[in-house]
Amino acid sequence: MANARDGEQHERSHHRFAGPLTEDEQQGDPERDDEQEPPQEAHSRVWRVERIGAGREAEVFALDEQRVLRRFLDDRSAEPDARIMRHARGHDLPVPEVYDVDGRDLVMERIHGVDMVTDLTRRPWRLPVHARTMAELHRRLDSVPPLDGLPEPFGSAEALMHLNLAPINVMITGAGPVLIDWTTAANGPRHVDVAMTWLLLATGHLPASAAQRALAALGRRGLLAVYLRHIDGAVCEPALPQAARWRLDHKVLTERERVNVERYLSQRDRDRRR
After folding, report:
1. How far from the centroid of its chain's Cα atoms is residue 140's Cα?
2. Which CATH class is domain 114-273?
3. pLDDT tens for each residue of 85-95
4. Residue 179 belongs to what H/E stretch?
């Protein structure tokens, strides 16, 4: 299944604000030896947490049943992510609610569910439904206006772009899909964002055994085939090279992912010349 997620690969949850512990709470229960160690605090807050996931850019801690803390691994501020998510949610996108942001820490609503990749491994017969879901999320993004201050890597700032809308970033919950990981969001033409998902489905890679990779590739191709039936391919296909160049230049990719993108573009170029 597509590895487009450069974040946590786990049965995600996503967040709300948990305030600092009281002095008694910070001391803990001396009769218990299983207290969770809090992460190092960037701003002197002390949290009682459990780490539930880690990825290339951030790690996630469960604060309670309603809240999670997402902490960047580097020193970047989480404020831009908070602004983007609030903007998207304010225009009726299914996005986790943001409760607090402090330096590299973002506290948001905890989403109880699994990512689309995990759901597909458990219920592969839902592949057509999930492909339609991704196309529908793009249609909903069409109505979200650009957000002041975001980069405009593709020129025209007609709307908000997610730029990483792939199965690993769609949570499947009882209340419907939830779109997470907005770190790459920008302003730009919507058809390029739709093309980016096309590229991610065509070239994604998840670390796994050879047999698991073969099954994932099979599922990815099936997902892409159905997805393409629900988008305007004639409009989006010309944007694939543009999307690929951006991904190669601006994302931290594994060597396998980089090779997949370059190989896919070369193959499409050869096909067009025939």
Report:
1. 16
2. alpha beta
3. 999 999 999 99
4. strand 176-179
